Amino acid sequence: MLTRRTWGLSLAAAVAVAGVGAVYFGLANSVAVSSDALKVARQPEPSQATLVKSTFSAAMQAAQSAGSPSGGYVTASLSGMRSHAAMHAVPAAARTQLLTAGRRELARYFSPELVSREEVGLNHMLLMDASADQVNLGSGVTKVVFRSVAVAGRSASIEADVTVWAKSYTRQSNQGPWIYSDPVNTLAYVATMTRASDGSWQVSSLAGDFLPGEGP
After folding, report:
1. What ranges make up the beta strands (E) of the chain?
2. Are 14 and 31 in contact (CB under 8 A)?
3. How far apart are CA 94 and CA 154, in angstroms?
4. Domains of the chain by residue range
5. CATH class belonging to 48-210
């Protein structure tokens, strides 16, 4: 994911004076302002490389976090664990909402050819959400380090290291102890991206693996 500064001046009249290079504003006191002082530095448009990097980062976050339950569910689950109350899965209606939202985000950042593959992770998260013996505390991306970014027309290639995290509690039975898991791993990705007619970018191919010593 630019703000343009707007100036709150009520322009009553502007008259160019030959040879002086000044503009007069019809304010309460007419003040001569140098034309050079009226030049407003506009924010430059983001480069395509910047858009590619921001979109790739958002795509990684969408793929990693899709299916994560709401903060309210997580808080209630942790409270229930502390009080040894009966645990409940994420309600079916909420899981349906997570599925819809996850698919929408994946379709936003990934090409149609990749969406079905990325939905594997989403479906895995929803399986956790449907179990009373697993508490999905969420997942996401900690950072993205770009090793190379090249843009040529409507295509771009990327090499990046992506650090991901996930947190959960699991138990073997409804009377068993809860086991906490919070892996953090870094994966090396090679990706290509394609720019659509509306100027947006999507990930069109993606291959990656854990860095040495980073596997599960």
Report:
1. 14-17, 22-25, 31-34, 134-152, 155-170, 179-181, 184-195, 201-210
2. no
3. 38
4. 10-42, 48-210
5. alpha beta
Q: How far apart are CA 192 and CA 202, in angstroms?
A: 9
Ordered per-residue pLDDT tens for the chain, 216 residues: 333 333 233 333 333 333 334 333 343 443 444 444 444 445 556 799 999 999 999 999 999 999 999 999 899 888 888 887 878 899 999 999 999 999 999 999 999 999 999 999 999 999 999 999 999 999 999 999 999 999 999 999 999 999 999 999 999 888 889 999 999 999 999 999 999 999 999 999 999 999 998 877
Residue with token string 């990705």: 189
What φ, ψ does residue 91 adopt, rounded to 5°? -55, 150
Write the DSSP string, 101-142. HHHHHHHHHB-HHHHHHHHHHHHHHHHHHT-TTEEEEEEEEE
In the structure encoding, which two tokens stand for residue 15, read together?
A: 């008259």
pTM score: 0.76
Query: Token digits for 151?
Result: 């843009």
